[in-house]
Fold each of these.
Amino acid sequence: MKKYIELKPEREYFFHNFKKNEALTDENVSSIFKYVKKTLKLYQYTPHMLRHTMATLLVENNAPILSIQNLLGHASSKTTDIYLHMSVQKSKKDFNMYFPSSI
């Protein structure tokens, strides 16, 4: 992803149509995703999963929730709070996995 960003760091959109110098449409992203899935045999993945993974990684790396909300285009921070809740669940799971109950 870093290499992709470095191609044209000043662009306004992450998913950018370089030929038209505008954002990719939903249909463009779907077409690209279908091609990549078929080529790499990753049939179970969707563009939404990529979006979800990005948001989760941002939360887990302490990105400000308002920044995540803006990146995802959520009108309400309550929608974005779902990712915070999931991160708390992961933290509890990690704690239980790595902290021995015998102490």
Amino acid sequence: MKDENEGSRALHIGNAVLDAAREAVQALRGSWDARQVDGWTQMVLGRSGRVILTGMGKSGLVAQKIAATLASTGCPSLYLHPAEALHGDLGMVTSQDSVLALSNSGESDEVVRLLPSLSRLGIPIAAITAKPGSSLAQAATWTFLYTLPQGEGCPLDLAPMASTTLQLMWGDLLASCLMDRRGFTRDHFALNHPAGSLGSKLMKVSALMRTSWPRVQPEASLTEVLRAMSKGHLGMTTVMDGAALLGVITDGDLRRALERSEQEGVNPLLLVASKIMTRTPTTIGAEAMAQAAAAVMEARKITFLVVTEQGAPCGVLHIHDLLEAKVL
């Protein structure tokens, strides 16, 4: 009976947190001012500086997350601790920067004490707060408001819960609108995420391919082919006629050619590249996604692709390159 009561109590308390956040998000869904957001994004894009995020306590932690999101989506930004700013770090803010301050009450002492200095410096101020009549809201040119119809959702209604969720929502909303206004693309995102799974998913073949690769002429002898393959360390060589790709030779092509020579009674040392090569090698465009290249290699059970640009070979992508970049 005790376990059932405890489980019921946990369900009640947990649902209170979820309900408070849901109702607050729903209220924001019907009340946020798109024109004010658009005005803020135009201001940010019209300045050459950064968006400076600031806030105390839990709002400060949310501000750090928003700063990270903005930076990763093409908007230079950083978090400035308001207490440290009051003791000298305000010098980090330049005349081309703007400030986005977070405070649920709009009366956080350290944040409010910053406002006169920011105004004197001519720094544009935006605010995320629940209190339109607060000191912060009154000092801000752009005020991004939210309400908490069911309070924080905390059993004591004291710990920031729904309020920090709404601050995070505002941060994501602003970042999304700014990305759209800036024309931020998947390619730009990849540049800001060169490592990890996000970066690997967005890499293009051109970023991973080898621009120097083994090649021989069609009349190259077997020993010349072997020399080129050994030097290239890719288990292959292309067969080129000038800038034109005629075919490729792999370890498998060599084995098959040697077997045919034995069956036909031909001296294998008389073999030339044009008689060994595969004439229709699998290719991929330089602008294709690396993941697409990986899918082709896996489907065809091959270890490399010749990369082309406007129909001409411009590189070779090996499976080791994909493994190294954690695409595979």
